[in-house]
Amino acid sequence: MGYADIRISFPGKINCLRFNIESTAEAVSALQRDGLTCRYCRIIQYQGTSTQLHTYYDLILTKNGKGNSQSG
Questions:
Q1: From CA 26, how far away is CA 7, in angstroms rounded?
Q2: pLDDT > 60? residue 46
Q3: In whole angstroms, what is the distance from residue 67 CA to residue 72 CA?
Q4: Average pLDDT of 10-20?
Q5: Contact predicate 5/46, CB 8 Å
Q6: Which class for 42: exposed (0-12), middle (13-18), buried (19 or more C-beta within 10 A)?
Q7: HEC readout, the chain
Q8: pLDDT for res 45
Q9: In this structure, are residues 54 and 48 in contact, taking their beta carbons and an 8 Å threshold?
């Protein structure tokens, strides 16, 4: 069917991951397993140059308060 770009943004970091549209919920679940919680979701659709509909899932994720706050 196509692909969706999931833009993940939380303080100090922006990642762009590409998932199949059908597996978006699956992808979000995987992110939650990694200790991220989805706080906000916005779906943006626009028409591409080659009559292709692009879908963006704009997610704002926050880290779950687990473990140390330091990284290393």
A1: 15
A2: yes
A3: 12
A4: 52
A5: no
A6: exposed
A7: CCEEEEEEEECCEEEEEEEEHHHHHHHHHHHHHCCEEEEEEEEEEEECCCCCEEEEEEEEEEECCCCCCCCC
A8: 66
A9: yes
